[in-house]
Each structure stands twice: as C-alpha cells, then as structure tokens.
C-alpha cells in the first residue's frame, strides 16, 4: 500500500493542467510578439532603397530571441504558480511541451494568414534547426545560382552553321558521290558545321548541370572543335577531285577541268566561311570563360557569406533557446514560491 500511495503522490506532483496553462501562455504571447514583429518589419522595409530588405533579418532575429525568452519565462511562471509545487520541473516541461506543440502547429498551419502569426512560433519550436536548414538552402541556392549563371553566360553563345550553298552541277555531284570519298562530298563541310553546333549545345547543357566542371567541359569542347576544324578544313587535293570526276562521269578533259575549277572555288569559299565562323566561336567561348570566372567567384562568395550567416544565426538561436529553457524553469520555481506565499498568508 505504501508503494502505491507513493506513486500516486508522484503523479499528482506533475500537474499537466498547469503545464497546459503555461504552454497556452507561451503561444499567446508568441502570437502577440509575432504581430508586433511583422509591424516592425514593415516599417523597416524601404522599397526606395537599393537593398529594400536591409536590416530586416537582423531585427527579426533579435526580436525572435527576445520574444522567445519573454514568452517562455511567462509560461513557466504561470505553470509554476498553478502547480504550487516542483516549479523547476513544471517550468521546464512548459518549455519542452511548447517545442513539440509548436512544431505540430507549424506543420498544420503552414499557409495563409496563420503563417504570419506562426513566424515567431516557428522560431520558438525549432529556431536552431530552422536556421541550419535555411543555411543549407542558401548553399543549395548558391549552387543553383552558379548553374543558372553558367546557362546564362554560355547559353547565349550561338554558332551559325549555315554554309553558303553554291550550286554544284548535278553530273559533278553524282560523280563525287560515286567516288565514295567523303571529304570530296559537297555536304561534308556542312555536316562538320552541324556537328560543331551539336557539340556546343551538349556542352552548354552539361555546364548547366555540372557548373563545377566548367573548366574541363570547356576544354573538352575546344579540343573537339579543333579536331573537327582540322578535319573539315584540310586542303582537298585538286588531283583527287579531278580523278573522282573523270573516273565517274562522261565529261571530256576540258569539261572536267572546268568542273574542277568551279567546284574548287565553291569549296574554298565555304572553307573560308567556316574558318571565320569557328574562329568567332572560339573568341566568344574565351570571352564567356573569363566572364564566367568572375561570376562564379562572386556567386561562391555570396554562398559562403550566406552559409556563415546561417551558422551564426543557428548558434544565436541555440543559446536563446537554452536561456529560455533556464528562465522557464526558474520562472516556474518563482511562481511556485508566490503560490506558497499566498497560502501562508
């Protein structure tokens, strides 16, 4: 019987009704401070400034820490005074229960106007965790920004792969086709230019997905570009053209010579045009590469600052929550003392 009576006494010492009253007090004061924080934020917002949100984050962070401490202290005091005993434990349980309740509330009330009143509650429930998550998001956003910048810088580069299409006589075209030598075909140079455009498009897509590998991707593209250029712009031997036309047509020697002159002129003009396009592309790539280096460094520095700021905020939030827990416990003890004074009086 004594053991049962002792257990019942322990259960009666933990007054969950008092704890509930303390949690309600915490939430009510938090909502009040949240509305006030929103008002302060609106006053701090300056749409005419170059940085309209400057100072809002710091102000809100400080205000959150203050409201956290005040609301927890008030809730602990209420719980301790209602319980009339074990103020420390009742105050601490108010803090712990508020964390759990607010996490649930934020999950359920994450939209609309309720979100405004839940801003401080979110900080109360998981300030440190939220800030660390925000820092991670900032880092992720920074990486995403780098990828977007890679797309913007290199995605604007275009390559005109259209060649001047001079008319090749049908009998000459047929004779070259029958020769089976791909380098002599009228479409050969155009196919190489089409390949350059496809290589450029694939490289830009890879840059957007893997911005950290930009240097290697650009180097690989330039190497492939040089290989295609060497292959496309190699000198075509006149004797090869003459032999291909003569062996695969019924032209006389004089007609063959005229056909070779016409085709050589057409090919030489196309080659010169192709060289100019490739050189222009190389220049654009080099300029974009320099611009990319500057933009990438700026983006990475911004990401690093965001991560550092997030880390500092998380540390501040952690200590604020720790102080709030201690104050809630001591306020509960103080509230219990006030209750006992009232009974003694």
General description of the model:
There is one protein chain. The chain has helices at residues 2-13, 16-44, 56-83, 87-108, 114-117, 119-155, 170-179, 188-209, 214-232, 238-247, 253-344. The protein has 345 residues and is mainly alpha-helical.
Task: Present the secondary structure layout.
Elements: H1 2-13, H2 16-44, H3 56-83, H4 87-108, H5 114-117, H6 119-155, H7 170-179, H8 188-209, H9 214-232, H10 238-247, H11 253-344
Helix pairs in contact: 2-3, 2-4, 2-6, 3-4, 3-11, 4-6, 4-11, 6-8, 6-11, 7-10, 8-9, 9-11, 10-11
Distance between the termini: 35 Å
* Mean pLDDT score: 74
The tally of strands reads: 0
Cα-based radius of gyration, to the nearest Å: 38 Å
Note the total helix count: 11
Percentage of residues assigned to helices: over 70%
**Gross morphology:** rod-shaped
Biggest sheet: strands, sense, closure? none
Order of helices and strands: HHHHHHHHHHH
Oligomer: single chain
**Uncertain residue ranges:** 110-143
How large a portion of the residues is in β-strands, by DSSP E? under 5%
Short synopsis of the structure:
83% of the residues lie in helices and 0% in strands.
